[in-house]
Write a structure and sequence with these properties.
It is a lipid-anchor. Keywords: Cell membrane, Lipoprotein, Membrane, Signal. Belongs to the BMP lipoprotein family. It is found in: Cell membrane. It is a single chain. The chain has 344 residues and is of the alpha/beta class. It has 2 domains: 42-142 and 267-293, 3-Layer(aba) Sandwich (Rossmann fold); 147-262 and 302-327, Rossmann fold, CATH 3.40.50.2300. Helices cover 42% and strands 15% of the residues. The protein has helices at residues 2-27, 55-69, 86-98, 111-120, 147-160, 175-191, 208-220, 233-240, 268-280, 313-327; strands at 42-47, 73-78, 102-106, 125-129, 139-142, 165-170, 196-201, 225-228, 243-245, 263-265, 299-301. A 5-stranded parallel beta sheet has the order 2-1-3-4-5, sandwiched between helices. Strands 7-6-8-9 form a 4-stranded parallel beta sheet, sandwiched between helices. The longest helix has 26 residues, at 2-27. The termini are far apart.
């Protein structure tokens, strides 16, 4: 009798344990990129709205190419997707057919499409350039926080102008562009308080002809140093033989004797961090801002190359001193995302 009672209690306890286990399984969250470590090479896809010739997407692409060449990832990409609705279709096709571990790209004009697709594929890590925040469980965001080297380029421009007028040609007056232009202007003002700054927005992310035309108009208005926030400005400076600053990447090769420097965005720290998180199975949606700053190697001032010998040594020394102060946290370049105006 006593043995039967023990057996019945055992059976009851076993049933209770199995019931609780089934409840826990039912309540468990859907699989996400954090589910398990990855032992094989990661599959990465790049989805770019503009041609990779455009520096913004080109920087992301270059970091992913580097990771592929180092044997860390398998990498495919599509460029020049545009903003007319193709991004969502392409992302869905990639997610369903190629099943990558990570998709990198730029959102902005495709913001809603990217977020819709990411929500439907929680097992894939979506890592996109965006002015908005991350979205759980799998959409991380980044941006180009290169306002610090943009300030240093402004210092150089303010010290190099002979006419007292410099020009800036930007894409759209959005926060991501405004903070670079404002930093450039403030750097110029530090060295040359009386400098005049012409600012033109072409209302396009990639229209080299329009950017060149805007730059030539600024040159006609007296600008003798230019900041090429958009692709196409360097061509105008080259035609006129004027100093010019690139953007996003080291663009000295476009005009080796005239491109003084560029605020450089390095996506490698961001890419390396994301790869390590996905590889370890601990990826979560994050704002990856810090990895695009000077402190973590995500932003820098491009080398002067063969233009350095033509620059005033005292100006170079002043810029180098300020650069070191930024690296050491002793000088802060304020983030101003208000629309810049022409400065007189």
């Amino acid at each position: 009798m006593e043995e039967n009672m023990k057996f019945n209690r055992f059976v009851s306890l076993l049933v209770l344990v199995l019931f609780v286990a089934s409840l826990l399984a039912a309540c468990a969250p859907a699989a996400t990129p954090t589910a398990a470590p990855k032992s094989e090479k990661l599959k990465v896809f790049g989805a770019f709205a503009t041609p990779i010739e455009e520096p913004w997407d080109g920087v992301i692409h270059a970091a992913l190419i580097k990771a592929r060449e180092e044997g860390k990832i398998d990498y495919e990409y599509t460029e020049n997707i545009g903003y007319s609705g193709d991004m969502e279709r392409i992302l869905r096709e990639v997610a369903e057919q190629k099943k990558p571990d990570i998709i990198f790209g730029d959102a902005f004009g495709n913001e809603e499409a990217v977020r819709r697709v990411a929500k439907d594929f929680p097992q894939i890590a979506f890592v996109f350039g965006s002015g908005l925040g991350p979205s759980d469980p799998n959409l991380s965001v980044f941006d180009n926080w290169i306002h610090e080297p943009a300030y240093l380029c402004g210092m150089l421009a303010g010290g190099l102008t002979k006419t007292g007028t410099i020009g800036v040609v930007g894409g759209y007056p959005v926060p991501e562009v405004n903070r670079l232009v404002n930093a450039f202007i403030r750097g110029a003002k530090e060295v040359n308080p009386n400098v005049k700054v012409l600012v033109t927005f072409i209302n396009s992310w990639f229209d080299p002809a329009a950017a060149k035309e805007a730059a030539l108009a600024q040159i006609d208005a007296g600008a003798d140093v230019l900041y090429a926030e958009r692709f196409g400005v360097i061509e105008a400076a080259k035609e006129k033989g004027l100093w010019v600053f690139g953007n996003m990447s080291d663009q000295n090769e476009l005009a080796p004797d005239l491109v003084v420097s560029s605020p450089v965005w390095n996506m490698t720290p961001t890419v390396e961090y994301v790869l390590s998180q996905v590889k370890a199975g601990v990826y979560t949606a994050q704002d990856l801002k810090d990895f695009s700053m000077v402190a973590k190697g995500g932003a820098s001032l491009a080398p002067f190359h063969n233009t350095e010998s033509k620059l005033p040594p005292d100006l170079v020394a002043k810029v180098r001193e300020r650069e070191q102060q930024i690296k050491e946290g002793l000088f802060r370049v304020d983030i101003d995302e208000n629309q810049p105006q022409a400065v007189n």
